[in-house]
Automatic annotation (TrEMBL):
InterPro entries: Haem_d1_sf, Host-pathogen_enzymatic-act, WD40/YVTN_repeat-like_dom_sf
Protein name: DNA-binding beta-propeller fold protein YncE
Molecular-function GO terms, alphabetical: DNA binding
Keywords: DNA-binding
Amino acid sequence: MISNSDRDDRAGDVLAVVSQSGPTVTFFDAVSDTMLAEVEVPPEPHELCFDPTQRLLWCTNTYVSGYYHANAGRGTQLTVIDPDARRVVDVVDLAPEHGPHGLALDPVRGRLYVSVEGSPDRPGGVVVIDTSTRKALGRIDTGAPGPHWFVIDSAGEKGYASNKEAPFVSFVDLQAGTFSTVEVPGSEGLAVSADGSELYVAAPYGSFTSCTAESSPLTGIRVIDTTNGSVLDVLSTENIVFPVCLTSASILLVGELRMSADESSALGRHARGRLSAFSTATRQRVARVELTGKFPLTITASPDGHLGYVAAVTSSTVDIVDLQTWEVLNSLTIAKRGEPGAHGLAYIPRLG
């Protein structure tokens, strides 16, 4: 149960949520869950990343419409939003790069890393942005056509890209501008430990039609040693995992996609999703939470590690989960104009 002191600590904090088909970013009060503002952005917004140094919110605009493997063309833009004034302050065009997805921030060096899809003559990669000038500084190849989520270690030296259909995760040397690969059977979300020693990778790739452990015996999270690239363990789940989030309490949150024959959408037939939680110290599951949302696609957590937020793209909702009692406290409805719905999330601490 959330205490009054926890609420006081979050007073003035804001949650930002993408609606892909909005196309919007909606801001909510982190204490009352009241909607504060809805900001229209270019199509089709996907992920969010908050830069506390510049105090700006970055958003990838990935497609003209649609979603991965079912779109009407790939976008080339990043939208820059002032989260305090709640308005768009810039649109950065990455052309000829296209299909920007994942975002990772190095606040010390003032670098933003953006994963981009490949072309017939070039693999996908990571574009490096200077956060003060908002200009591209360069590009690092990742060796796969569709790099998706991207994370970096706390030292800002290594990056990691998940690659959906490609049978490997890309290990990127951010200083040398080179990459190597570690074999996994396609990958979705990923997270890196606070000390940078372990990488947690959701695998295999989710196909919407085959998302159970019966068809994928090693469904779950690959725990990879980042020094030698060896797979140390597999944290098993009953269903395909898309989003992954590591909290400040070293709890790994994973969102499981569950299928249903009862209801269909353009994205597939989905039942209510599940949130599973693992201790990274023991590698044991510590909780299972039945979500209200369908197709969990993005997870984030409050800085204190007390609250988890799970965006579900088909139902276009965000479940708010108490990470101590493992209860769903509330579910936010995110406006959409079709499919997909709720996607990217960012927790924005109050100014000062």
